[in-house]
Amino acid sequence: MSPANYHSRRRFLGTSSIVSLALGLGDLLRLRNARADASQPDTSVILVWLTGGLSQLDTYDMKPDAPSEYRGDFRPIRTVVPGIDVCEELPLHARVADRFSLIRSVSHGFGTHSGAHKQMMTGHIPKSKAGFVNEVPSVGSVVARIRKSKRLKVPVYTSGQREGTDVNAYSQGAAWLGHSCTPFLLLGDPSDDDWSIPNLSVLPEVKPRSAERRALLKQFDNIRRDLDLHGVIESTDRFNQRAFEILTSNTARNAFDLSQEDPKVRDRYGRNRYGQQALLARRLIEAGTGFANVVMEHPGGQAPQHTVYNWDCHAVNCHVFNDSRWRFPNFDRAVSALIEDIYQRNLDRRVMLIVMGEFGHTPRISYEVGSQTHVKQPGRDHWPGAMSILVSGGAAPMGQIVGSTDGRGEHPADRPLSAADLWATAYRHLGIDTKHSFLDRAGRPRPILPDGKPIAELI
Fold first, then answer.
1. Do residues 308 and 378 touch, judged by C-beta distance below 8 A?
2. Which residue from 62, 116, 115 is spatially nearest to 88, judged by alpha carbons?
3. How many C-beta atoms surround the C-beta of residue 110 within 10 A?
4. Quick one: which of 331, 339, 366, 328 has its CA closest to 58?
5. CB within 8 Å of 92: residues ≥ 6 apart
């Protein structure tokens, strides 16, 4: 054999080996992804996140027999479930109490927004109470990572929040799971007539590496081009097509288009930021999204002087009871409509709804001069000692009270629970093994949850 023929044959064999390897690897990946897809249940979570914290004594854990400086202005009303009472400002909740359960005994040790955000969004105890950047992946990011192989036409993980915010504003980051597992942000107010799907953009921290990445990819062009001659690698990698596929799919366009919804349904949710964000989450979940976060801060419209932007009801920020009288009707309408919709559309076994903030508020009322009103007014401060959480759907028993607090709503009296217990319950619904580990930035295996057990009453 001539040297030329020898080298030609050797080159052919080398190329053929690469082709065979690529074909084999492609088949392997397809089989692995098919198995992964088959093993993942078609379940999802909608999280209604109440930034600033929900006052348990003014909503889901009222104490009418406590001294006046604790119980406040509101009185409880009966619901359709004997033994479950809610605030009189939540009458629509009262009608659907057979379709939700209330957890009253969750607590943690972080009285700052940042520490509490990280605790409640991850189920892990944060190392530092400073800053909102996640030290470990958020629950939504874990869902995005686990389900990344599913061929969805909508984002796996979404977050509806106000303009000017990013994933770190509410501790929704992916930490060591990477930027591909951060939420697709739905910025702005979906109740606005001109609201539209936000454009995908490169995150600021990624931009410096973009040029370097493009340069690196060019080094592979010749290899890819040679292999393409043999029909092994498609001209564009499927992973690089995902964002484009999502934004150009009919499924995504339809899910984001609220004008396709029955106007009566939109009215039932409320034509405001709370209501239309909740409705959008339901539409995305139906289309295949696995974790939809609905950040409810300001409901929209002109706010009275005695109110605050979010749920952070310090006396210096707002008159807590007047703020509630303004805020609660929109909250009541949006949450009750979402619960009704989940059940009416037979989504209750597939979808778990969780409504919560990062902590509760002080049972004892404080008084300060308001920064807007300039008069002394009542308020409630941060209180991680006890908080209330609403759970609906998820194929769980409804119409229950899980846990209780003492007579003044200060601390759990029985069934003390943690954020890890809550998320262990949600992960079980999602079919995710919390013992599964991912490698952190140091290369160490880190379990999805370090502890926590599914709440027995909700499984």
1. no
2. 62
3. 20
4. 328
5. 332, 333, 335, 336, 337
Q: Residue 271: which residues within 8 A CB-CB, separation 6 or more?
A: 191
Instruction: Scan for tokens 């601390």, then name that residue.
Output: 411
344 three-state secondary structure = helix
pLDDT, tens only, 239-266: 445 566 666 678 888 899 999 999 999 9
Are 382 and 366 in contact by the 8 Å Cβ rule? The answer is: no
Distance between CA 406 and CA 129 in Å, rounded? 27
Q: Read off the DSSP letter of residue 80.
A: S
Average pLDDT value for the chain? 85
Angle at 175 between CA 169 and CA 178, to 5 degrees: 110
Dihedral angle of Cα 427, 57, 52, 194, to the nearest 10 degrees: 80
Confidence label for 152 from pLDDT (cuts 50, 70 and 90)? confident
Q: What is the pTM of this model?
A: 0.84
* Cα–Cα–Cα angle for 438, 132, 175, rounded to 5 degrees: 20
Q: Which of 158, 92, 54 is nearest to 337 (CA)?
A: 92
Whether the CB-CB separation of 417 and 425 falls below 8 Å is answered with: no
| Distance separating alpha carbons of residues 449 and 423, to the nearest angstrom | 8
Residues 6+ apart with CB under 8 A from 282: 46, 338, 341, 342, 345, 347
